[in-house]
Amino acid sequence: MGWRWFHEWGSPKWFYDRAGRWQRVCGFLALALLLVGTLWGLGFAPADYQQGNSYRIIYLHVPVAFLAQALYVAMAVCAIVLFVWKMKLADVGMQALAVVGFGFTVLALFSGSIWGKPTWGTYWVWDARLTSMLILGFLYLGLIGLRSAIQNPDQAGKACAILVLVGVVNLPIIKYSVEWWSALHQPASFKLTEKPAMPASMWVPLLINLLGYYLVAAYLVLASMRTVILDRERGSAWVREVIERD
Amino acid sequence: MSVEHRFLVRELKLVLARPGDFFKPMWFLILVISMVPLALSPDSKLLGEIGSAMIWVATLLALLLNADQLFRDDFVDGVLEQWLFFNRPLFWLVILKLFCHWLFYVVPLILVTPLAGMMLSVPNDVMIALLVTLLLATPALTCFSALGAALTLGTARSGILGVLVMLPLFVPVIILAAGVLTRASDGSDILPLLALLGAFSIAAATLLPLAVGVALRLNIGGSS
Amino acid sequence: MLIKPKTLQFQNLTCVRDDRCLFADLSMTLPPGSLLRVAGPNGAGKTTLLRILSALHEPDSGTVQIGEVEDHLESRQEILYLGHKPQVCQDLSIMDNLMFLTEASQMKCAQAVQFVGLKGCEDSLVRELSQGQGRRCGLARLWCHEVPIWILDEPYTALDPGMVAILEDRINIHVGEGGVCVFTTHQNPTNLRFETLELARVS
Amino acid sequence: MIEFQFDSLFNFLRMAPHGIYIWPVYGLGLLVIGGLAIWIRYQHRQAIRKIRRIMNRESIHEPKA
Questions:
Q1: pLDDT, tens digit, for every residue of A170-193?
Q2: How far is CA C107 from each of CA B60, B74, C103, C110, C171, rounded to the nearest angstrom?
Q3: For burial by CB atoms within 10 Å, which of A93, B115, D9, D34 has the most?
Q4: Which residue segment(s) compose the domain that B181 sits in?
Q5: How many domains does the structure of chain B reveal?
């Protein structure tokens, strides 16, 4: 099991310059999409016959909840890349994804629980999706805690990679067991995102918002990766040039 | 003497050399369980209902008390490096170590739970279900906490980070075990759930030692 | 002491630690019966080289081979590695440690304990012994672990002259029987004939 | 196909019964995502400042020939 380090195409310097451009593109696109999507969802989408206007929260909650899980899976992909191709960049990606993913999970949790108030009358309901989102949040927290506890960055990267891979294998098991548990104890009440055949005017803004939040996540991850690269490669010469250029 | 035999002998001697680690979990379990009636109410009907779940969670936490010490002492003494020089794959040695830990620390703890059950006046059939679920679930829990311990080997101070990192992964086991307990209390059959719990435990007990081996190898190789 | 003599061979070993190159393209062949001292100032990478030779650490490039077995990891049980750490369990007695770490019988371990001059404290816990005695416990394995390749990292530390002489005799016997020994030390050995591999401190 | 659902801007802001739940959620969204962006940018500047400090310290000790 060799941990030999070699920079294939993913050399930090090459990535640092390109990420700067991709980051700006993602940022502006995300801003545009989110403005359009949110205004459309809040103002122009028809009110839901059951919930009235409070369902409009799904235009934030559903994309963010989807992102929280997608970012965890992205971390698992980075972990595989780190183990198979031993690329330092994958480790940097994992570190950036953990923080952004945790932020999205917290946002999904709060938006879900605030949405619970008009729907069920209480802020926290042990609903299947909210509970597995809570557990996902603890998984993210575990990763961030482990990352900050180990001094040597390479060791921290590989330790987190192992934790992410074990976590991603258990994620579906956790989701199913939580869903089974919540169905066991509560009659199948209105699920947060049970979409009864949404008309086009409802799910089009949802799609735009989803794309918008994806790009926001990409923007944040790229920005965070550039910072981590700068911090880790501070010894090398190309960092000095970049600093003098800025 | 084969490597396996030497491992068992050493683990037994370690248990005798460190009696504290053997009794602390039991002491913790009984202490926590005796807090429950104080916090709730001494009325035995209420205690009987929630008693088994309380015992289950308390046993789970008692298990995690000395999880962090699994590899730390060997790592600090440098004996963990010597593990690599046995002609056995590392994950096999991890399985041996976890089996010994389970046999000498976890099973005695499970045998103490009936005492806790009596204190919370848990009905007999639920008590049996509790014992069976614990016996089925603890291999998986031990492997998970071992992975947590192996991952946090590189951190300076030993702490509960290894446990915090692994607790979210205990959720399926807790849910399945709790399902068995509720089924047992209202008499319906518990076999399908026990089968699921057993399957999860076997999968964890065979696959996780590989990850623990990689984590250990990482910490041994890293620190010069 | 019956050991199967093996050659220890490494080709263009390179190791970089936080972008400082410790050593590059180190190649050497150690036939049975050779004794090599790795010398160099602190931080020159001596310990790292020894850990690479005993397959505890992965070199950035280059290979290590023992005998005809290509995969170095397979032939790890041919190696006796002694590092900076005491390598013995503090909560066990010296006898229990030896019985665990080596395949030797009870009687052979008892002999080994006598050789390192710990007669009489076989059953006391390692923790109760002094630092020097603790090092002797680690060294006791040399007398009861029949393995062709020895890799000893600073075996002389915390040893009194009497023990140093005993250790050097043991190394001479081992090398005489066709074993290979790679060691590092800052004290200059008295009656050992060894080649030296100098690791220059790379500024 | 798409027309404004509320008869006046004021109703849009009040958003009938549950307005006080919808707007805080979007406010929170802005807070979390905006906060993340600002925090990452702040860390970026910190990293650059730290490297600059190292460079200055080095250039003082061994001025470039």
A1: 999 999 999 898 888 766 555 555
A2: 44, 26, 12, 5, 22
A3: A93
A4: 3-220
A5: 1
